[in-house]
Specification:
The structure holds 2 protein chains of 2 kinds. Chain A is an alpha+beta fold. Chain A has 3 helices and 8 strands. Chain A folds into 2 domains: about 100 residues, Roll (PH-domain like), CATH 2.30.29; about 50 residues. The longest helix of chain A is centred in the first third of the chain and has 24 residues. Chain A is rod-shaped. Chain B is an all-alpha fold. The longest helix of chain B is centred in the N-terminal third of the chain and has 36 residues. Chain B starts with a strand and ends in a 36-residue tail after the last helix. Classes of the chains: A alpha+beta, B mainly alpha. At the A-B interface, helix 1, helix 2, strand 8 and helix 3 of A face strand 1, helix 7, helix 8 and helix 9 of B. Strand 8 of chain A pairs parallel with strand 1 of chain B, so a sheet runs across the interface.
Chain lengths: ~160, ~525
C-alpha cells in the first residue's frame, strides 16, 4: 500500500520542523508473506514427500528447488518491503533520505537555496540547488506529488 | 541553471533506454512486450499443433492406411497433444496474464521483470526440441502426451528430447507462476483488496498456485523416466521391481490439475466478457471466487478417474468417482452465475460475447460428458475410446481455446489501439463453432460404438463418422486463418479504439489509453 505519512522515524524526527515519509506499495504484509510461503511450502513438499513414500522420490529435489526459488522471491520482497523515501526540513537544512534494502542514502540541501521542481501533471518531483537536481517521490502518485510539492514550496518560502 | 540529475536510482530515467528491433524483444522486461511474445509464440505453436491435427484427420478420413505408417501416426497424436497443451494453450494464458494482470491490479509491471523475460525465452528452445524430435532416429515420441511407461521407457532419442523440453517448459511455468503470485499478492494498488480483484486475476492467482504445486511432480515423473531409460533405475520397470502403474498415478496427479490450469484462466476471461456485454455486474462474484478455489482443491483428489481400468480397489474407484462428480457443483455454480449475469441484461453479441456464449454452451456439453465418464462402469466401457477424445476436446477447444478467442477479441482493441473487423470476427466465431461441432460431435458416437483412440486405421462401421470429423477438422483449421488475418489487420490498421472500448466494460485497464503507454501505473491508482 502506498502511503505518505507523517514522519515517525527516530533519527531526525525529534527536531524536524517538517518531515514526510513515503513508503513503497506492499499489498501483502510481512506476516502475509510468511503465511503464503508456509502454505505453499507445506503443500508442495507434502505432495513430494507422499510420492517419495511410494518410491517416487525424484519429485522431492524438484520440489526443493522450486521452494528455494520461491523463498528467494519472497526474501527479495521482504528485503524491499521497508524501502522508503524521507524528506525532512530542519533549521536551514533540507535532508532527503532514500532507504533501500537496509541502506540509507542521504542528500542535503540548503533550505534557503533549494527549489522545488514539479511537472504540471505531477509525474515528476525534484529538489534543485547549485546545479544539482534530486528526483524523489517514487512511491507517490501524481496527486500526492503535487500536494507534497505545494507543501514543500510553502515550507521553503516560509524560510525565506 | 543547468540541471544535472543526481542519479539515485529512484527516478523515472531508469525507463529511458530501450533497445530497438529484435534486441527489444530479446532483452525486454516489459510485461506488455513479454505478453505479446507469449501470445505470438502460442499462436505459432497453435498452428504447428494444428498442422499435426490435420495430419491425423487426413489419415482418418478413410479407413485403411493412406498416408502415414502407424508409428508416425502415433508420433502425430503425441506431439499434437504435447504442443497444444504446453506450447499453445498454457503460454497463451500466460500471455494474457502478462498483459492484463498488472493493468488490472494497478501494478507497474510484474514483480520480477527479468525473471519474466527468462520465463518466456526458455520456451522457444523447448519448442524447438519438441519439433526437432521428429527428425532424430526413431522419430518423435509416440507414447501419447501422457508418456505412459513402459512405452516411454522404450522409445528412441525423441523421447529424451521431449523430456528435456518438458523440463524447460516446467521451469518456465514455475518462474511464471512465482511471478504472477508475487505480483498479485504484493503489488495491488491501494484499495484493490483481494475481493475487489477482477475475476480474471483471481483465476490466475489460483492457477499459478496449482502450477507451483504440480510442476515438480511432472519434472520428477519425466526425470524418473529418463533415469529408467539411461541410468539403470527401476522406478517404473516391473522387471526390476518397479511399478509402471506408479507412473500413471504420478502423471495424473500432475495431469488433472493441469487440466484446470488450462481452463481456470478461461473461466476468468469469460467472467470479464459476459458482464461487459450484459451491461451488468457479474452475478455472485464471491461465489465465483470460492467456486474457482473449490475446483482447484478438488483437482488434487480426482486424478485416478483417468485410470479406472488400471486395477484398483472398488473403494478407490468409488472415492474417485464421487470426488469427480463433486466437481460438477462448483462448475455448475459458475455456469449458473454466467447465465444469471446475462439474465435481464442489456445484451449485445459482439465477437467476444459470441465466443463467451459459445464457450458456456459447448464447454457445458464437455462437462456433462465428463460426468458420464466419471461413472466407473461406464468409463470402463469408454476408456480409451473416441468418446474420451470428444470429451476433452469439448473442454479444451470449446473451453480453453474459445475463451482465449473471447479474450483476444475483447482486449485486442486495448492492446493495439485499433478495432478489429467485427464482421470477420463473427465469421470466425460461427465457422469455428460449426466446424468444431462437426469435427468432435460425431466422435461421441464413434466412441460409444467402440472406436479406440490413437489408431491410424479403423473398422468400416466407423467410416462415416470419421469422414464427417475429418471434413469438419479441415474446415476448423482453415477457419483459424481468418483469425490470423483479423489479428494482423487489427495490429496494422483499423478504426481507432476508444480508451473504454466496450460500453459495459469495468476495470482499471479501461481507464488507460488504447493502446496503453509502454509503462503504466508507475504510480499506483487509488481504487475506490
Amino acid at each position: 500500500m502506498q502511503t505518505v505519512t507523517a514522519m515517525e522515524g527516530t533519527e531526525v524526527a525529534h527536531a524536524a520542523e517538517f518531515s514526510l515519509v513515503a513508503r513503497r506499495n506492499n499489498s501483502l504484509t510481512s506476516s502475509g508473506r510468511l503465511l503464503v510461503f508456509v502454505f505453499i511450502f507445506v503443500v508442495s513438499v507434502g505432495i513430494a514427500a507422499a510420492f517419495a513414500a511410494f518410491g517416487a522420490w525424484l519429485i522431492l529435489p524438484f520440489a526443493g528447488l522450486e521452494m528455494l526459488v520461491l523463498y528467494l522471491a519472497f526474501r527479495y520482497l521482504d528485503r524491499h518491503a521497508a524501502d522508503y523515501e524521507r524528506i525532512a526540513i530542519d533549521g536551514d537544512k533540507v535532508k532527503v533520505e532514500f532507504f533501500e534494502v537496509g541502506c540509507v542514502q542521504s542528500h542535503e540541501f540548503n533550505r534557503y537555496w533549494a527549489q522545488v521542481v514539479v511537472s504540471r501533471d505531477g509525474s515528476r518531483l525534484a529538489l534543485r540547488s547549485h546545479g544539482r537536481e534530486l528526483e524523489f517521490g517514487r512511491y507517490m502518485n501524481d496527486e500526492q506529488r503535487l500536494s507534497v510539492a505545494l507543501e514543500l514550496k510553502r515550507q521553503l518560502r516560509g524560510a525565506a | 541553471m543547468d540541471a544535472a540529475h543526481a542519479h539515485n536510482g529512484h527516478g523515472h530515467e531508469a525507463h529511458g533506454h530501450h533497445y530497438t528491433g529484435i534486441m527489444r524483444w530479446i532483452t525486454t522486461t516489459n510485461h506488455k512486450d513479454i505478453g505479446t511474445l507469449y501470445l505470438v509464440f502460442s499462436l505459432t505453436m497453435f498452428f504447428v499443433g494444428g498442422l499435426l491435427a490435420m495430419g491425423i484427420r487426413l489419415e482418418l478420413l478413410q479407413p485403411g492406411l493412406q498416408f502415414w505408417q502407424p508409428e508416425f501416426f502415433n508420433e502425430l497424436t503425441t506431439m499434437h497433444g504435447l504442443i497444444m497443451v504446453f506450447g499453445a494453450i498454457m503460454p497463451a494464458f500466460v500471455g494474457f496474464a502478462n498483459w492484463q494482470v498488472p493493468m488490472m491490479i494497478g501494478a507497474p509491471d510484474m514483480a520480477f521483470a527479468r525473471m519474466n523475460n527468462w520465463s518466456f525465452w526458455l520456451l522457444p528452445p523447448a519448442a524447438t526440441l519438441l519439433v526437432v524430435s521428429f527428425f532424430v532416429p526413431g522419430g518423435a515420441t509416440a507414447a501419447g502426451w501422457t508418456l505412459y511407461t513402459p512405452l516411454s521407457t522404450q522409445m528412441g532419442p525423441g523421447m529424451d528430447l521431449a523430456i528435456f523440453a518438458l523440463h524447460i517448459m516446467g521451469a518456465a511455468s514455475i518462474m511464471g507462476s512465482i511471478n504472477i503470485i508475487t505480483t498479485i499478492l504484493n503489488m495491488r494498488a491501494p484499495g484493490m483488496t483481494l475481493m475487489k480483484m477482477p475475476l480474471f486475476v483471481w483465476t490466475w492467482l489460483i492457477t499459478a498456485y496449482l502450477l507451483i504445486a504440480i510442476m515438480p511432480v511432472l519434472a520428477g515423473a519425466v526425470t524418473m523416466i529418463l533415469t529408467d531409460r539411461h541410468f539403470g533405475t527401476n522406478f517404473f520397470n516391473a522387471a526390476g521391481g518397479g511399478d509402471p502403474v506408479l507412473f500413471q498415478h504420478v502423471f495424473w496427479f500432475f495431469g488433472h490439475p493441469e487440466v484446470y490450469v488450462m481452463i481456470l484462466p478461461g473461466f476468468g476471461i469469460v467472467s470479464q466478457v459476459v458482464p461487459t456485454f450484459s451491461r451488468k455486474p457479474l452475478f455472485g462474484y464471491s461465489s465465483m471466487v470460492y467456486a474457482t478455489a473449490s475446483i482447484a482443491i478438488l483437482s488434487f483428489i480426482v486424478w485416478a478417474h483417468h485410470m479406472f481400468t488400471v486395477g484398483m480397489p472398488a473403494a478407490a474407484q468409488l472415492f474417485f468417482m464421487y470426488t469427480t462428480m463433486l466437481i460438477a457443483v462448483p462448475t455448475g455454480v459458475k455456469v449458473f452465475n454466467w447465465i444469471a449475469t446475462m439474465w435481464k441484461g442489456s445484451l449485445t453479441f459482439e465477437t467476444p460475447m459470441l465466443f463467451a456464449c459459445g464457450f458456456i454452451f459447448v464447454f457445458s456439453m464437455g462437462g456433462f460428458t465428463g460426468l458420464v465418464l466419471a461413472i466407473v462402469p461406464v468409463d470402463i466401457q469408454l476408456q480409451d475410446t473416441y468418446y474420451v477424445v470428444a470429451h476433452f476436446h469439448y473442454v479444451l477447444v470449446a473451453g480453453s481455446l474459445f475463451s482465449l478467442f473471447a479474450g483476444v477479441y475483447y482486449w485486442m482493441p486495448k492492446w493495439t489501439g485499433h478495432m478489429y473487423d467485427e464482421t470477420l470476427g463473427k465469421w470466425h466465431f460461427w465457422l469455428s463453432m460449426i466446424f468444431f461441432n462437426v469435427t468432435f460431435f460425431p466422435m461421441h458416437f464413434a466412441g460409444l460404438a467402440g472406436m479406440p483412440r490413437r489408431i491410424p486405421d479403423y473398422a468400416l462401421q466407423f467410416a462415416d463418422f470419421n469422414m464427417i470429423s475429418s471434413l469438419g477438422a479441415f474446415g476448423f483449421g482453415l477457419s483459424q486463418l481468418i483469425f490470423v488475418y483479423v489479428v494482423v489487420q487489427c495490429i496494422r490498421s483499423g478504426a481507432k479504439a476508444a480508451d473504454k472500448t466496450w460500453e459495459g466494460a469495468e476495470g482499471l485497464e479501461w481507464t488507460l489509453p488504447s493502446p496503453p503507454p509502454y509503462h503504466t501505473w508507475e504510480t499506483p491508482p487509488v481504487v475506490k
